[in-house]
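Researcher: I'm preparing a figure for a lab meeting and need a structural model of a single chain. I don't have an experimental structure, so a prediction will have to do for now. The sequence is pasted below. Please return the structure as tokens so I can convert it later.
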Amino acid sequence: MQSDVVVSEGKVKINQSNLDYHAEVGALALNTDDPDAPVATLSYVAYFKMMDKKEKKENRPITFIYNGGPGFSSVWLHMGGLGPKRVVTSTPDKPVLPPYPVIDNAYSLLDVSDLVFIDAPGTGFGQFISHATNAQERQAQKYQKANEAYSIDGDAQAFAQFITQFLSRHQRWNTPRYLLGESYGTTRSVALANRLKTQYNVDVNGIILLSQYLSQDIDIDFPESNPGIDQPYYLALPTYAAIAHYYHRQLHVSEDLGELLREVELFSLGPYAQALAQGNLLPEKQKGELAEKLARYTGIFAREWINADLRLSGPVFVKKLLAEQGETVSRSDGRYRGASLHKMAAWSDYDPIMTIGSGFVSAYRDYLTQALKVNTVQDYVSDSNAISHWNMTPENRSFNLLPALSQTMKMNPRMKVMVLGGVYDLATPYFVAQYHLNHLSLPEKLRKNLQFHRYESGHLPYLDEKSLQQLHQDLSRFIAG
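Model: Understood. Here is the structure written out token by token.
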């Protein structure tokens, strides 16, 4: 797809009211110091409410939306729950095969804000650009430009350029502005808001962090590679308990999920954290007692906890929980499960929820042509696999965006931050998000600008309608308020 803009019109019913909108599909060229030498294009889809004569454009909020990965396009948030149309895809108990219905989204965010869905560098229809005369030079230049963009700083710079260009092109500099990212998109949002403020002198009204990932050290995927850092284990335990509760794998615990999670959270920050802090000095008797309690909460046998020194990583947990049935559960949403590819593997070898991705991409390509009037044979890249090349360690250290978030909130004291997490999400456990909020270096008056919402869902809370409805209510109140 070229940088030409394709415009269309549509309508959707939200909250019992019909809403007419303009849709715009295009790509913006990102430049270095030389405006005639663009380094890349970022593709996007924008939706603008058709306004009557009484409404003022500067009062209408605009929300910039993107997924994570890193290396994912925005198709998931776009077609999953925030755009004016959404894909009906598989739920934990009801798999769906083609054709994938695309329906009006009664929970679109378009009722309170204009929406701009941005595809990350190297995804969507975006491309890295080279005007070299031969193929070998072009490939080398594109690789170099991708390498520069595939980092926390390079990615934030690309999005900052996109947003400032978009605001200029659409004359929206004096309108309320919001950033909404999911997963690695939350990493991007914090780095981006900080860069917009410190480098471009651009404030945002609010940041929405959906399934937040702000600190690399607190990661339950492979915590064994970081011995001595025990936070991943005890902050993931409430998610283990929630998933075990969903499959009825527990004995002698509360049937009420909320009550159970409160109990496990207290245990995690108290006896469990204190025991792990002792390391090899923990007495064997106390170790056995804790293993029995961990087994009661998680459905994993006490002997397994003892063999693991009371430290069970996420990939091991999702592999072992339903191992007797030959199944593995999803890391992203523990309510999804699938047949284990290798029964004797020590940890999970795939994520069952990722099988729904084809439904999003297939339905989106049809939607682009039929509703958005985009006719192109160019491939739409939903996943660039950029994560394999991503520089996650600035200055050879694990990244931690909490200082950047604190700095931005102090420099922009009216900016609001909303964090959203699903209790079945083991990719970015909700209790980690709460822990981060409780440890931000902020004066008391600025802590009032923080809010947290928890859903009975996973990494993608918009996949089921009940959570999507709650998500719409929370987002609408945050932006409209």
